[in-house]
Structure formats: structure tokens, C-alpha cells
Amino acid sequence: MMKQQNQPHNPSPDAELLAAIYENASMAADAITNVLPRAQDGKQKLLMEKQLQGYQAAVNEAGKQLKGLSAPVKENRLSKLGAKTGILLNTLTDSSPSKLAELMIQGTDMGVVDLTRALNKCPQASQGVKSEAEKLLKQEQNYIDDMKQFL
User: Fold this and answer.
1) pLDDT tens column, 116-127
2) 3-state secondary structure 77-123
3) Tell me: the pLDDT tens digits for 9-24?
4) CA–CA dist 59, 57 (Å, integer)
5) pTM for this one?
6) Looking at the predicted structure, is the pLDDT value of residue 136 above 90?
7) Using alpha carbons only, what angle is made at residue 36 by residues 26 and 73, rounded to the nearest 5 degrees?
8) Angle at 58 between CA 45 and CA 11, to 5 degrees
9) What CATH number is given to the structural domain containing 139?
10) Phi, psi (deg, nearest 5) at residue 63
11) Is residue 106 domain-resident?
């Protein structure tokens, strides 16, 4: 009897898009957790905490749906470590509200690009999963707008 070789698993469009949502929101939540202790402005800190809650909700929902599809939930620890190091280096000499807003906007903008790319790459994803991605994109655009006042 011939032994079957493991073939690479191609995730469904829903699983692929949910994984992108999960990764995006997980990275953002982790970054905010690293930036929050440096926040000096009370209003900015409250906005970051609100953003953190939004990202954590997206992580929880995407994670739950991925598990429902029996799809793996991946943590990109290397990327998170790089982001944490970048935040530490970028706030070493300047942790002003303007600098934190700049970092938050840049990070959120990267998330918008990555999630938009994933959305475009998964046109066959179900409308429900696409709506989850679009909801997160809209939140991220609002987060960017919220941070602009601190520049």
C-alpha cells in the first residue's frame, strides 16, 4: 500500500479572511498594550483603551469562528516581538501624545492595508465574514481619525 504524502492544506476563503482579521486585531491589541503605559494624556489613554476593547472583541470573534471551522489560530510571536521592540525604541526619547498618535496611526494604517489586501484576496468568502472584515476596517479608520487630534 502506498503511503500518502501530506498535501498542503488550502484554507477556505472564510478561514483565510478570519485568520487575517485575527492576526490584524491581535497585533493591534498587543501594540496598544505596549503603548498604553507611555500615554500621558488622559483623553488619549481613554481612546487607546476603547480601541483595545474593540480589537480584543475582534480577536475573540474571529478566534471563535476559526475554531468553528476547525481552522488553526496562529500567533505571530516574531512580528509581535518586532512591534514591541519598535515601540520601545520609538518612544525611548519621545513619548509625547503627538509621538504616540503618530505610532498608533502608522500601525493602524499598516493594519488597514493588510486587511484590505486580505479582503481583496478572498472574494469568495461569505458575506458574514466579509462584513466582519469591513467592520474592523471601519473601526480602524475611526481609530486613525481619533488619533489625529494629538498630532
Assistant:
1) 999 999 999 999
2) HHHHHHHHHHHHHHCCCCCCHHHHHHHHHHHHHHHHHHHHHHHHHCC
3) 567 999 999 999 999 9
4) 5
5) 0.85
6) yes
7) 10
8) 145
9) 1.20.1260.10
10) -60, -45
11) yes
